[in-house]
Amino acid sequence: MLTVEKLESGYGESVILRDVSLKVQPGQVVCLMGRNGVGKTTLMKSIMGLLKARKGAVSYGDRELTRRAPGVRAKQGIGYVPQGREIFGQLTVYENLLLGLEAVAGKTPRDIPAEAIEKFPVLPSMYERRGGDLSGGQQQQLAFARALASRPEVLLLDEPTEGIQPSIVEDIRDVIRGIKAEGRTGVLLVEQSLEFVRSVADYFYVMEKGTIVAEGPISALSDEIVKKHITL
Fold first, then answer.
1. 2-229 maps to which CATH number?
2. What per-residue confidence (pLDDT) applies to 173?
3. Could you report the per-residue pLDDT of 104-136, keeping only the tens digit for each?
4. Which strand ranges, in their side-by-side order, compose the sheet holding 2-11?
5. Full-prediction pTM beyond 0.85?
6. How many CB atoms lie within 10 A of CB 174?
7. What is the DSSP letter of 153?
8. CA 106 to CA 162: how far, in whole Å?
9. CA distance 8 to 16
10. Transmembrane residues, as ranges (predicted)?
């Protein structure tokens, strides 16, 4: 189980997150929601170790990760698909996928696990293409598959449907549902689409001004909560 306890984090002298706590169980899809600028991406980066925690703790099971580097967290089983995808445009699709293997603890596999690419069957036909030549939706599929290559136990997805075509949104929906059905990997999802959230999530947290202001099973995501904390 991924556990965040009373986390405080930010940039420079600015404190963005204050006293943030949440949990993600194996096989559970947890959605983190809120208006733009409330700290959702900051929280994802803090969980991944890209931003240092000033207070609080991040752990997975009995593994304390709060002071660990991002690479160590990846080897401990946390995968990350950042907002904006951040694939390497000058590398081929295949080379981008191989980079995902760097997060595998112990001996690095020689090739990409089949389960990482079978969820996105179009990718093998693009192996020789440069990442920068792909469409936004194809880049998102690549970033997702790259994260899955390490067989993560927790997967952080930051706005995976942002700016991509509806057909690939459906593909991503199916992949998340499939991961949930397998019951091994927990997913922490940042997402703005209420329809998408309600179709995949089990539990939700809502952020406002860097703190958690509402949480509960997805059935409790009421119109009142949406109007007060999510919609503009």
1. 3.40.50.300
2. 93
3. 755 455 678 787 888 888 888 999 999 888 888
4. 14-24, 2-11, 55-60, 63-64
5. yes
6. 12
7. S
8. 34
9. 7
10. none
